[in-house]
Amino acid sequence: MAKCTAQAFIFSGRPDPTWFVGNQHSRRLEAMWNQLESLDTPQSSTRKLGYSGVSITYPSNIEYFAFEMYVQKKVGNRYEWRRDEDRDFERYLLSTAPQGYIPNEIIDSLM
Amino acid sequence: MYSDETKLRITIDIFSGRENPTIEYSGKHLDEICERLSLKRSFRTRELGLPPIPTLGYRGLMIEQHGTLSIKELPRAFRLASGAAFGLEMSYQIADEDFEDFVCGSVPKELPINDLRKEIAQYKELVDFWNQYRWRNGIIKTIENKCKCAPIYEPDWWNVSSRQGYNNCYNYATNYRSNTYAQPGRASGAMYNNLNCVEVKAGAIADELIDSPSSDNKCPEVGHLVALVVWPNVDYHWYRKGKNGQWSHKMGGTPVTNLDNSGNTINDPRNADRGSYSDFCTFMIVKHGHIMIN
C-alpha cells in the first residue's frame, strides 16, 4: 500500500528531511484537519533561513502544508486554508519524523 | 603637455569572438587627442544616445586612462560613438565629431582601415535609425558595475520548475547549475563530515573555491565573491555578491531572493538577519570555469 510522505522545510545546503508517515498517523492528521476552523483568505509565508514549515503528501496527491498557525490543503490546483492556532497539526506531523531528522531547537520552539 | 606616464587606451569595440584591437597613446600625442575629445556640448536629459542593445560589428570606442598620471579633463573611462561620449553619469558631444575617423589612422594592421570606416559609417546609420524610430527613453548613461566579473541577479532564471528544486544555496552562490543539490567537496571526494565552518570550507576549497577571509565584502578583480555561514552542527548556507554589488541567496530548493530573514536587502551577509545560521565562516572567491561542484 502506498505511503504518505512528509517533508520538513529547514535546510539550505543539506537536503531537507523527508520520511514516510504511517497510516495511523496520516488518518489522525486528516481527522485533525477536519476539526480546524476554515479561513476565508489565502495564507502564505515567505521562506526564510531556517525552519519554514512541514508538509505531508498522500498517495492521492492531496497535500497538507502546516506553518505558523495555519494549515493549507492542496487538491490539484485548489487550495484551502484552516486556522491552527496552537499549531497542533504542525507539531503532530513533525513528531512523526524519525529521531534526529528534525533539529531539537525546532521541536522546542513549537512547544 | 603630458608626460609618458599619462596613458590613454582606446579599444575598438568591434569583434565578438576575437579580442578587440587596442591603441595606446601617451605623452605628447595626448595634447591633440584631449583637445579632440573635449566637451563641446553636454546632452540634455531628453536627448537620445546609443541604442539600448548591443549589435554585431562596430559598437564604438572604449576609452580608458591607465597611466600613473591622470588626465583631469577627461573621465577615467567612457564610450564614444558617432561623436558622442558616454560615461558614468555623463554624456556630451565631443569637439571633434570625426574622432573615430582620426583613430582609423592608428589602427593595427590586422584591421583594414576601409573596413573599419565602413563599419563606423554603418553604426552611425544605426544610431540615427534608433534615434528616429525606436528609442524614446532618453539618454542611456553608462552605469558602472560595482562587481564587474560577478553574475547578474536573475532570479527568474533559477526559479523555474526544472531548476529550482534541484539546485541549492551552493549551486546558486557558485552560479553553477548542476541539478544535483550540490554539496561542498562532493565532486572531489572531499565532502564535509561535520557541519562546521572548517569542514564545509575545506569541501569548498576542494571544489576550487578560493578562501578569501580578508575580502571584507569587496569585489575581487577576477571572479565573484561568495560568503559561507553555518548553523552549527545542523546546516550551512551560501550567499553571492552580484554585479550590482548586492548580495542574494537561495535557501535550499526555494526561490532565489535578495532579502534576508527580516525582509531587508543584503549589503553584507555578516550583518544580515541569518536566523539560526549564526556562524559567519568566511568570504570565498569563485573563478568562473575553475570550479566543479556536484
Verbal overview:
The complex is a heterodimer of chains A (111) and B (294). Chain A has helices spanning 23-35, 88-95, 104-109, and strands spanning 4-8, 18-21, 37-39, 54-57, 63-67, 70-75, 78-83. With 111 residues, chain A is α+β, with helices and mostly antiparallel strands. Chain A has one domain (4-102). Chain A has a 7-stranded antiparallel beta sheet. Chain B is an alpha+beta fold. Chain B folds into 2 domains: 7-134, no CATH class; 155-286. Chain B has 6 helices and 13 strands. Chain B has helices at 29-37, 99-104, 113-134, 155-158, 169-174, 197-206; strands at 7-12, 22-26, 39-42, 61-65, 77-81, 84-87, 90-94, 210-211, 224-231, 235-241, 247-250, 256-257, 279-286. Chain B is elongated and about 65 Å long. Chain B starts with 6 loop residues before the first strand and ends in an 8-residue tail after the last strand. The interface between A and B is medium-sized, with 16 and 29 residues.
> What oligomerization state is this entry in?
heterodimer
- How confident overall, as mean pLDDT of chain A? 92
Instruction: Supply the number of structural domains of chain B.
Output: 2
- By DSSP, the count of extended strands of chain A is 7
Return the average pLDDT of chain B rounded to an integer: 86
Strand content of chain B: 15-25%
Shape of chain A: globular
Order of helices and strands of chain B: EEHEEEEEHHHHHEEEEEE
Biggest sheet of chain B: strands, sense, closure?
7 strands, antiparallel
